[in-house]
């Protein structure tokens, strides 16, 4: 009876657990996958030395196809060694599901992953992290999704981990400076007060390796630094507990006064949009007020009331009601235009 085991290697050559070593040693066939993390030269040699068996290097395409792995696993004990934790990647989860559905026994040997290790290494509280973002080379100059996720996280006071892509095959990836530039471009477009050159952030490079490095500073200063070989991760802290400030100061060797909360200046979407819509609607109303007869006084009054309500809602943090009310105000003015009463200059 065969079996497919997913063996997490953790963050480096010595990150594998004793259970993982046993699983590789006992396998009939063992593969070592590489994809998003550059292997240290000694990784394969040390794994083979520790397990006493040969491992075949395979790429992501081989694992995504999975045909050979699943065929072998029906009769043999197959082990797939993966840096980090195997089930963090959806490719491995999908392969596991296929194996289970085909009647193959599966087993997962978990390992340290960049997601938890980044938080641990930073000194920030893990439970205060929210959605993680992967920054790819294709999206680095238009980080719309990353920007909006960071925005939502900061509104909640949460920390954000941005994983910067690295492709083993091409040797190309996203540098911290490129990710920062992409976020600043998104800010120039959306203007939510999410990031600026003064945004305080952490950079962790080659986490878990002997040549690992860490940096903490404002965006403007981090953009100037050279970080060396990948992989890199970028952390934008949200609301900080005093113990987190102390930890960052000690770990990153930086004065506590420079460790800042990034959530204080961020604006809710409604805080950006509603004042603009109110101002636009008020200009439009003032432009036609003198052209409207007394029979439309109730329409004018209701437009003004809806604008006032929108501003009150916004001040009370009732964002949905604020957007609805300014929408009603605009709609009333539009009705005058659609019915031919007057032309509205928006």
Q: Please indicate the count of domains.
A: 3
Beta strand %:
15-25%
Major β-sheet strand ordering? 3-2-4-1-5
Structural class: alpha/beta
**Rg:** 27 Å
Q: Provide the low-confidence segments as ranges.
A: none
| Contiguous helical run count | 13
CATH topology category name of the largest domain: Methyltransferase, Cobalt-precorrin-4 Transmethylase, Domain 2
Largest pleated sheet: 5 strands, parallel
Span between termini: 73 Å
Please explain how this structure is put together.
With 346 residues, the chain is α/β, with parallel strands linked by helices. It has 3 domains: 3-112, Tetrapyrrole methylase, N-terminal domain (Cobalt-precorrin-4 Transmethylase, domain 1); 115-258, Methyltransferase, Cobalt-precorrin-4 Transmethylase, Domain 2, CATH 3.30.950.10; 269-338, Up-down Bundle (Substrate Binding Domain Of Dnak, Chain:A, Domain 2), CATH 1.20.1270.90. The protein has helices at 18-26, 43-51, 60-65, 67-73, 90-101, 114-122, 144-155, 176-190, 219-222, 242-251, 269-288, 297-315, 319-338, and strands at 3-8, 29-33, 56-58, 77-82, 105-109, 133-135, 160-164, 166-167, 172-173, 200-205, 213-218, 232-236. The strands form 3 sheets. A 5-stranded parallel β-sheet has the order 3-2-4-1-5, with helices on both faces. Strands 6-7-12-10-11 form a 5-stranded mixed β-sheet. Helix 11 (269-288) packs parallel to helix 13.
């Amino acid at each position: 009876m065969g079996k497919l085991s997913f063996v997490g290697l953790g963050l480096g050559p010595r990150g594998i657990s004793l259970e993982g070593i046993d699983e590789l040693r006992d396998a009939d066939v063992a593969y070592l996958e590489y994809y998003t993390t550059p292997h240290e030269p000694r990784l394969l040699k040390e794994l083979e030395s520790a397990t006493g068996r040969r491992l075949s290097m395979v790429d992501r395409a081989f694992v995504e196809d999975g045909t050979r792995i699943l065929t072998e696993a029906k009769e043999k004990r197959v082990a797939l060694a993966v840096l980090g934790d195997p089930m963090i990647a959806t490719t491995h989860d999908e392969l596991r599901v296929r194996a289970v559905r085909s009647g193959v026994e599966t087993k997962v040997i978990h390992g340290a992953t960049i997601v938890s290790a980044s938080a641990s290494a930073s000194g920030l509280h893990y439970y205060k992290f929210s959605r993680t973002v992967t920054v790819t080379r294709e999206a680095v100059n238009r980080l719309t999704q990353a920007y909006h996720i960071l925005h939502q996280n900061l509104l909640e006071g949460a920390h954000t981990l941005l994983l910067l892509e690295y492709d083993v095959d091409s040797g190309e990836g996203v540098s911290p400076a490129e990710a920062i530039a992409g976020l600043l471009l998104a800010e120039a477009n959306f203007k939510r007060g999410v990031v600026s050159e003064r945004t305080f952030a952490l950079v962790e490079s080659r986490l878990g390796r002997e040549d690992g490095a860490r940096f903490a500073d404002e965006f403007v200063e981090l953009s100037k630094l050279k970080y060396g070989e990948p992989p890199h991760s970028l952390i934008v802290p949200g609301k900080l507990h005093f113990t987190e400030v102390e930890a960052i100061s000690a770990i990153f060797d930086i004065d506590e006064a420079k460790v800042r909360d990034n959530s204080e200046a961020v604006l809710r979407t409604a805080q950006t949009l509603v004042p603009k819509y109110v101002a636009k609607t008020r200009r439009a109303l003032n432009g036609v007020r003198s052209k409207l007869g007394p029979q439309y006084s109730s329409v004018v009054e209701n437009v003004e009331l809806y604008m006032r309500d929108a501003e009150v809602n916004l001040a009370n943090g009732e964002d949905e009601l604020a957007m609805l009310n300014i929408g009603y105000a605009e709609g009333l003015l539009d009705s005058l235009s659609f019915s031919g009463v007057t032309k509205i200059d928006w």
